[in-house]
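An example makes the point: we let one protein speak, the chain in one-letter code, the fold tokenised, and here it is:
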Amino acid sequence: MLQRQAANGRAACFQTAFRLECGLVGNGRPLTYKSTRRKRMAKLIQKYFLFAVLLLALAASFAYSPPWLRLCYGLALFLFGMQNIEEGLRNAAGGRLEGWMRKSTATPLKGVLFGTGATLILQSSTLVALLAMAFLSSGMITLPGGIAIILGTNLGATGGVWLLALAGQNLSLSPAALPMLVFGILLGFFGGRSRALGRVLVGVALIFLGVDEIKDGFQAFGADIDFSGTQIGGMAETLLFFTVGFLLTVVLQSSHATLLLALAALSGGQLTLMQGFAVAVGSCVGTSVSTALVGMLGSDCSGRRLAVAHVLFNVVTAALSLAVWLPLTQAVILAGQWLGMGALLQLALFHTLFNVLGIAVFWKFQDRLARELTRRLPDAADAGSLPEETAALEAQYLNANMLLSPDTALAALGKEVRHLDKAGVETVCHALFLPPPLLYDETADDRNLPDPAPPLDADVPRLYARQIKPLFSSILEFAGKLDPSDETQQRQLAAEQTAAWQIVETVKESQHLQKNMQQYLSDSASPANRDYLRLRRHVFKTLLLFRRTDGADTEEARAELAHQLDAHIETLETLRGRAMVKLRNKELNGWQASSLLNDITYARRIGRALAEILASRNPLPEETAQADEGFAAQEAV
């Protein structure tokens, strides 16, 4: 049986040591060349220099134009209010939003309804889209399910436009904002969901204040800003304001902010209704492009497919609306007049019909689109082995998008720890002077290993410094940012921490093993040569059993292979006994015997570490209950 009790007993110790390691290496950076450091420093300097120039330019513009300052002030209040609502609602929901997302993709209709509802609640189509990309990257939802959620986010975004249009009528919201601000700040002094609710109230109050300030800012500009007199006309004017809406959304990173500006200008008579329609279409395309850029930079290939689908949906919908521009806009105007709607509500109605048109067009093609995206954007082929010694090993699954949810963060961490597993066992293969591809050969056996071929010059310490430690440091840094929401997630985090720590310890043990392996495998005339060949075969079989156990398809197969691994580790006592017999028979001298006995100990530690990794990933029910009691005791302390 695997040493499951030992693994669970050491979990708390590993967590403490993990944090100590974070202090030692977590603040460091992977070993890189000086030229790479200089390039990174130059990019940072350039970034902050441009930011400083932007701040100075804004400050100068504020001094020159008080109405511009008021407009920017209102926009800042609005954006900060949106951020407060988003974070407050997410904290109040806990992990339930993520649970709903996993269940919502059973059918396309459920996916659209979830995307619509989540966007209405969070008032951020970008956040819901990024969550969908993160869940898709972690394998929790399918691509067709993610596409359905994206369709729903576009429909849900119209809810915010209706609210802004209603708020933009000739009504001041500031009187309602002031008590909400007071109550929200008072609730913030409490913990838990009261604080989250307070954050939401503060956000709503800031939005109300921001809406009033933006309206007042446009009124202060007066005739200085008046797009309604633009004399371009026709499709050229439509494309011009489409571009304005697109660029504003990309810069502000919020379609709601762009539409709020359009509604304020429309309310003040500084923008015509047709120009507002064009801005609305441009804002939809802009938010999909900005979201896709963030998602593509922080997702794997599956997340990028969903980002492309998001852009494709909005671009095609925009193209269709422009193709039927006159009938569509005239239908909205006539419907608005018949229903007694003002210009602001007509803009909200147009935004809704525009997105409904896109959903109707894409509805029957979701599965076909998913298949086509999978064909055109295939997953990257697995390299199968470590890169060259001079190349750093980078994290494949850890990115900022995964931290949007504890579920996706833990899934990404688990994938990255298995990436570290693979790199670690391949490094141990180098210590044995064996080619790592043997690990993935289903016909491989410890009895038919290739003989060690000189020169035996593999450098495990160099591999550790260049590849294992940088990847381990990335895992440490990512794990430090992860905030489990319940005991189950805390157990999962502890298990992944234990596995990462153990694989690094395995590589360190192999560093000690390599020195004598190199010496005695190179000298076929040495009395210890055959003993080291046996030890080499033993350690390789340990690696082989570990890899096959972790990749087993069924629990029965996993349990059987785990039992074989445990029994195989115990056969090291036979090698130890043989070494003592040879020492008594003077077949080995004291120096050779002591080296061999030490290396048998290192081999045993490697085997036990790998067995404990498997135990931490597959705890028995009674061990899970013990872990729950342990975590509860830690919380009490």
Notes: The chain has two domains: 65-223+233-376, 400-636. The radius of gyration is 31 Å. Confidence is low (pLDDT under 50) at residues 1-34, 620-637.
